[in-house]
Amino acid sequence: MGTPQYILMCGICCQNKSLPCYCVDCTDSLCVDCTKDHEKQKPDHITLPMAESRCPDHQKFYAVHCRMCDMPVCRECLTGFHNGHTCSNMNQAKAEKMHQVNRYKRDLSENVCSYQSSEDQGSKQLENYKSEINAVKMMINGQRERLKAMVDSQCDGMINSVETTLETHMDQLTGELSGIADCKRKIQEEILRCESLSGKGILEIKEFLETLPHLKDIPDWPPALSRPVPSKFFPTETSSSEGALKQMIGNVVLVRIHNSFSCKLPVSNIQASSADEVWVSFPDEKLLTKYHYNKEKKQARKGRH
């Protein structure tokens, strides 16, 4: 439900309007427009919402603030239950309450400052982390490209040596095949001469036989072809070369941050230190662990961030 509006006469403009506010000092009901002007002209006056300006027991406007009961009261309350109680005017009571509010606000502002400082520090750390991650990624990618170039160079060299060796063997075999083909051609031509003698006279056949052998330089069997040992590639097993590959690439040192954890001094394997913290590495891990030094307990405590 909304705040009830009281249809009365405005104490300033004297018009019959909805009156949402009441001025305790002027004891006037005010319309919306006059309330705004009144608060500007008399900022020290107490202006209350109409629904909160009347005593619920007597339906009278509040007049003063009872200090003993810490509540606003009307004139009729002063003759009854609040008779003899110490009272103050509404302005003074409001000023005291606002003093408490301002003190609370000041404390909150101090808390906001500390939280803002922590937030700024955390944001800066996040940006630093992002920069560090990008820098490490660039270094890893650079190493990747260098190793890829080395692998490409090695593979290209092996491929070139294989091609050169095979081309030499191919040239040798091509020459041998050319000689065999030439001998085969001469033998086939001699066979054709023999076949052509069937239509010749006996004297020509005799002359042919007397000049044998015609193919003195051609052996009965072709020479054996050269059989070069074929080139082979024996790739290294991936599992056995993984360690060597990691060693070639390099190692990433990771920073591990723990919750609160205590250990007795002295702390070994210290890599770096300051007045209140140390960085520790362990032989079996590629990690750095950050410890905060607790001077009172003489302990090194793993930092919480």
UniProtKB/TrEMBL annotation:
This is Tripartite motif-containing protein 45-like. It holds the Pfam family zf-B_box. The keyword Cell wall biogenesis/degradation does not apply. SUPFAM superfamilies: B-box zinc-binding domain. Coiled coil: none annotated. Keywords: Metal-binding, Zinc, Zinc-finger. It comes from the Eukaryota. Residues 5-50 form the B box-type domain.
